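Hello forum,

I keep getting stuck at the same step: I have a sequence, I want structure tokens, and every attempt I make locally crashes halfway through. Rather than fight my setup again tonight, could one of you with a working pipeline run this one for me? It's a single chain of 131 residues.
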Amino acid sequence: MALETEVIESARAFSQVIHEVAAERGWTPDSYRVHMSVNRDWYILNALVVNYRESFTNQQQQDIYDDIYDKLEPRLGHVPRPFNSFGLVIRGRESRGDLDSMPLGPEDEIIDDTLLNPSPASNPPAATPSK
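Reply #2:
Ran it on my machine without issues. Output:
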């Protein structure tokens, strides 16, 4: 099923905030990847951010999460919001290629990584989640 324009716009706005926070933290585009899924039944947009070069403590993950959400709320005021909630998971290099930490159910649809990452050719290969 093709994703609606408002889903793509929201996903791109969400990923843009993630990329801005990543740049502020000194992450290079080839050091991390953004993965997203949408649950149309519950109107949830989930993001998984995997940094392939760093490991994070729980507090560091929470700090990154907070930085992203602090920027996300004002930004989404300009984008159609077809969602009840936005989920976010931050993982470090120990999760390389592992999308199992992204909550996926049969009703979830993965959003194409090339819509979310600025230079997919330089990013690590996209992993395939297990369902």
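The radius of gyration is 14 Å. If your local run keeps crashing, start a new thread with the error log.
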